[in-house]
Amino acid sequence: MTIPKTPNQEYTMTVLSKITLRASLALVLLIVLGAMAIPDPTPSADASVVQDTTVITLKPVGEELKFDATEIRAKAGTTLKIVFENTSTIMPHSVVVLKRADDIETVGMAAMNAAEHDYIPPSEKDKMVAYTAMAAPGATVEVTFTVPPAGSYPYICTFPGHYTLMQGTLIATS
Ligand SMILES: [Cu+2]
Q: Is the pTM of this model over 0.70?
């Protein structure tokens, strides 16, 4: 494209408004596409490794009974720190990593009657790999533990009624 030697005011204005219009259309398209984007079925948490400790930050999705990451990956035998930022303004939540998926129901049900233990039932602790304290709305809790042997480990929230929906999977890699 050659630039006219004698700048034509009208030409410049036309080009500029065309560019502006195109940019606006592109922006609108981006917004529409963004709103239409299909959520990743297994969103993964961002992980950062500090001194051999993998740090993963989890949050709830708005006021839904959902973790923002439903899959966490870490190497078996390494140290994993889960930081849970409870961004909900109304609901308490926790992160409890279990040894077996078959125990989700048992632990979830037992937790309902464990208010005095912060909804971490002492009788079921042997089924847990790790657990955070119950995070009040707006609070941040964390737990640091050694990643168990290679395999899949479910994590749930043990606040009454949340465990059926509020789940994710820790994948311990070899
Ligand atoms: Cu919860």
A: yes
